[in-house]
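User: We ran a pulldown and think these components assemble together. Before we commit to crystallization trials, I'd like a predicted model of the whole complex to look at. Sequences follow.
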Amino acid sequence: MESMREDVADETEMVDAPSAGPDRGEALRIAEALLFASAEPFSVEELAGRLPEGVDVAAILDELSAQYAGRGVNLVRVSGRWAFRTASDLSFVLARDVVEQKKLSRAAMETLAIVAYHQPVTRAEIEEIRGVATSKGTLDLLLETGWVRLRGRRRAPGRPVTYGTTPHFLDHFGLDAIDDLPGLEELKGAGFLEGRVPSDLSVPIPSDDDTLRPDEDPLDQDDLFLPMELGDGDE
Amino acid sequence: MESMREDVADETEMVDAPSAGPDRGEALRIAEALLFASAEPFSVEELAGRLPEGVDVAAILDELSAQYAGRGVNLVRVSGRWAFRTASDLSFVLARDVVEQKKLSRAAMETLAIVAYHQPVTRAEIEEIRGVATSKGTLDLLLETGWVRLRGRRRAPGRPVTYGTTPHFLDHFGLDAIDDLPGLEELKGAGFLEGRVPSDLSVPIPSDDDTLRPDEDPLDQDDLFLPMELGDGDE
Amino acid sequence: MANVLPFEDVERVERADGEPALLVDVDGFEGPLDLLLELARRQKVDLHKISILALAEQYIAFIEAARRMRLELAADYLVMAAWLAYLKSRLLLPEPPKGEEPSAEDLATALALRLRRLEVIREAARKLGERNWLGRDVFGRGAPEAVVVHKDSQYQATLYDLLAAYARQRQKQFNARVQLHQRNVWSLAEAREALERLVGHLKDWTSLDAYLMTYMVEPAMRPTILASTLSATLEMVREGKLSVRQEKAFAPVWVRAVPDPADAGA
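Assistant: Here's a predicted model for the assembly, 736 residues in total across the polymer chains.
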């Protein structure tokens, strides 16, 4: 490393190990290039086969790994072989955060709306309101947005999971509380609905409160770790 | 992040350039790690986006390439970007790793040269220079290598497709820019880069710029999906 | 570059008899221009100073030799031979006064230029081929470490989208209910039940319409009541429980109970 820092351009200085012979600098360069270009880590034997005769491969590798010790890339031993790897403290530079703006599908949006207005709500109830089956992916996706959460299980046959919204949901849609969602009459007033609102069609009062409803049981311990299709009891 | 910077603070010894700041050593290591880890060249802009704010990327790159100048791996400029490549003088040891280098036929190599030096160029112009019909496979092959691309269509009868080279071409032949083509100056001087009528010796500069020439139209939408024999309007 | 070419001066004589050995393998050439370039090289002079006339003669000699050996020649070799024969004759004859056509000298110059251009590009191709190819002479990172992309999907939706989605579904439900009302029909069973109630005290002819009026409070129900009642009536007539009478088409329908044989007997 020292030699590399000081003057790399001058190759003779780069190698100042006691056993330095005329070929040593070349062997170091070859080993470096081989290790860099190889898709697989090299064993000492494999390297020896590619370096000039009589080169002390172990010494070359020691020297190389010392030179690279403090750098952004290190020469490391992996399963008995040698390879260049990004310095472990720099693994973060290889990770890149990409924020992808995605739009919810119509089905997802509708499901979200029902969850918001009718929470706590089961999948069967969502399907009843929408009049169509809700694809497995839709609820998974909504959970992924962070807007919808599993609340508990309905105290009913099959113990279906109940869904509700999260504080993040309120945040995203600029709502102060879940009861700020406009009711049907307000929706009509805003032009979202046409015609007379039948008296028997109303919106239950949604609750995103953490407190479970009387007909809700807490989630089973495993629910959060089960894949949806297993954890979802209301299928 | 913070803690990491502190760890790296020791590394500043490595860098003793006049402008060395506390982050400089880290920036150098990050740039090194990124360039080393990637098989593809990085542009200065891409690097800047991944390095700490306010780092002089050009200076970092200069320093890195100086550090690696005599080594088995060099930091080089290709296609206007930066990449680590094995030192060219070590080709003799590394070439053994090449499973089977597909050799370009003389016809393909000549066609490639014509595309490179005369771009944007149509198939008819290539044939005019070579004095022989270009077999269908030759241009297909060059397109397949990723070195040649369809650029547009010449604003001329038949709207022939124009061909040009890609950044990948520059990368492959170790060229920083199309102006670095070997012998280009002489050819320019001799007025040999006018692909068309020999009477007019102007416009001798090949351009692989994405911007179309005044006499080029963009490709039709289907061009990229059509087999060559259909998409190639100049047959 | 379009320097005047000394057409006739170059070592024509020594070549005229020489080197027929070349003239065998046509396959080695990529077209007439390639062959011409090779012949020109054989003149061992700079292409700037090439003798086009000598070249034309050589080419024609080559083609003739090839034909004598019955080698198959592609048409463009023959076309070039014909053109060169023409050029040769023009070069040998005194130039006619300036006409429409390009002068023989211009044609020769253009040909020389094409040859030089081909030679130049060949040289360029050679130099390009001699560069250090990536993956042949120099190598990139053999085991690139993938840049891990943490995709943070951020879903975008507005309150408007949310409300519109909700309203859309509720609206569907309203519509569904209205349709339910419209589909409300007087079933045959209902009609028959009502008729049977009627029949009990229909001792004399009674207007069916008048009777049904009581059921037709909702105008929308009128067609279905009429249709079902008529069907039920006809069914009961078939069973011998009712008599039906109508003066003419669209006239009121009269019904009367058929006296029970048991009653009649009483």
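Residues 1-23, 178-182 of chain C have pLDDT under 50 and may be disordered. That may be worth checking against your pulldown data before setting up trials.

User: Thanks, that helps.
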